[in-house]
Amino acid sequence: EVQLVESGGGLVQPGRSLRLSCAASGFTFDDYAMHWVRQAPGKGLEWVSGIIWDSSDIDYADSVKGRFTISRDNAKNSLYLQMNSLRAEDMALYYCAKGRAPGLSPCVFDMWGQGTMVTVSS
Amino acid sequence: DIQMTQSPSSLSASVGDRVTITCQASQDIRNYLNWYQQKPGKAPKLLIYDASILETGVPSRFSGSGFGTDFTFTISSLQPEDIATYYCQQYDNLVTFGGGTKVEIK
Fold this sequence. Notes:
The complex is a heterodimer of chains A (122) and B (106).
Chain A: E1 3-7, E2 10-12, E3 18-25, E4 34-39, E5 45-51, E6 58-60, E7 68-73, E8 78-83, E9 92-99, E10 109-112, E11 116-120
Parallel strand pairs in A: 2-11
Antiparallel strand pairs in A: 1-3, 3-8, 4-5, 4-9, 5-6, 7-8, 9-10, 9-11
Chain B: E1 4-7, E2 10-13, E3 19-25, E4 33-38, E5 45-49, E6 53-54, E7 62-67, E8 70-75, E9 84-90, E10 96-97, E11 101-105
Parallel strand pairs in B: 2-11
Antiparallel strand pairs in B: 1-3, 3-8, 4-5, 4-9, 5-6, 7-8, 9-10, 9-11
């Protein structure tokens, strides 16, 4: 069974850091690009970042560029998101999503985790 | 940045009704458009990719069409289990989602 399990969310003060993880199973992890998508409470979906199968190409949304870093460890079937300088507007449920292709395009999210909640508050 | 304008933001329809949602891109995105369903408290689920291709296992009452800037998502006969919020998503230039359409039963 294909499964994505996020972890690492929690309550953090503005300006602090947090690292999210996503453990993948049930598919050949290093065959596919992976992404982070977030959803603020009661709001719509916002793509955050994507990473190609071998980490050679990475993209970020403008809203997180320079503050967030995506990475992956194919040996551990894991995806990560290092979030620095967190702001109130970063508060959201963060989903790990599997891309359909090895590259960042076509960008079709065909499998999603259940998400991990990040709360930014003093 | 490419903006995706989805309408309506919500709708109420009866079981068996035909439901149509539109998504307009701020520039030509060819057919690089996907549709997702998100039920309350759940992760999104891919329904349609590349504007019109039905994802494996998705019921045939769901369909999509369009090219360029104007796209349509249709449920041919609304079922109670289709209550959800639906999102379009472009990937011609990075990734952008539409604002979502909440579908309810009348």
